[in-house]
């Protein structure tokens, strides 16, 4: 990390402690990765970076750094230079019940008001006000129709934890304290304090797979152990308030004082609407990065030294079998045949006479169909 970046991080740290000292400050891991990845490229470094960032406890965090140090010790020093306590899950405050390490929420809101940001100040605020007024009522009505006890997305995350809980071995220590064995690791779960050694439950407010296994051991519902902030009633309280409507300018009260909006100052050049894009972002697909820095592998032998064209195993690969046609095989006559057999049957039975079979394989009788009065068949 260069001197300029070090001084910037140090200045941000000092500002963080002087301004709003009791608030938790986090940095976007995606932006830090963009800076760190300039000197340490490749899929291997990318995997190790996010493994350290997404670790829920300090033990997994240290294991990820040790794995990174075996490849490049300087990469670990550069990683620590960005103050990991501000963008790694292992050091995140558990009071907020949020494990987000990127600024996607802010970027989403910026995209939501993108059209309003190009207007004058008064009209921009009016557009944002009306959009939020409609959004509050739409979210409230949508959640009122929901039948579950916790929010839909939280329920989906909990279902994944229920699936992973099948691989956990639970051993009770007391009525509410358990020892859980999972993937060659041993952890402690306390259902009374709602904590687990993995720290995931304490950080997110959603029971982890170890806690879910203990809850199932007691024959209880995992939904009852989800934090109150994710319950349907709490979510409805968040959208219970409403933004009052505002009348048009014609109905505003008239006063003697001259109160004018700020003057419109048009700057030089075309106004900027789009965000600053990443240098390696695909111009044809907004928001999608190119394959710059991606380590390519051979699709035949999975080697990183060559591609499929120069693979020594190119002539030895097994030819893929032709795919079977979708749907039910086509019926010919009274039997069912696949596409090849049907073509062969039609080829050897070509005739100038009209066909004797109708829909569903029924035999035609004297031009009246299978339900005709006569029972004698039409001979060619």
Provide a short characterization of the protein structure.
The chain is mostly helical and 380 residues long. It has twelve helices and six strands.
Helix proportion range: 25-40%
Instruction: Kindly report how far apart the N and C termini lie.
Output: 90 Å
What gross morphology would you assign? extended
Low-confidence stretches: 335-353, 366-380
Count of DSSP-assigned helices: 12
Global structural class: mainly alpha
What does the main sheet amount to? 4 strands, antiparallel
Radius of gyration: 33 Å
Q: Give the ordered list of helices and strands.
A: HHHHHHHHEEEEHHHEEH
**Count of β-strands:** 6
Q: Provide the spatial order of strands within the biggest beta sheet.
A: 1-2-3-4
What is the strand content?
A: 5-15%
Average pLDDT reading: 80
Written description of the protein model:
With 380 residues, the chain is mainly alpha-helical. Among the domains are: 3-91, no CATH class; 113-144; 152-238, no CATH class. The protein is built from 12 helices and 6 strands. Strand 5 (331-332) and strand 6 (335-336) form a beta hairpin. The protein is extended. The relative contact order is 0.06. Mean pLDDT is 80; it is low at 335-353 and 366-380.
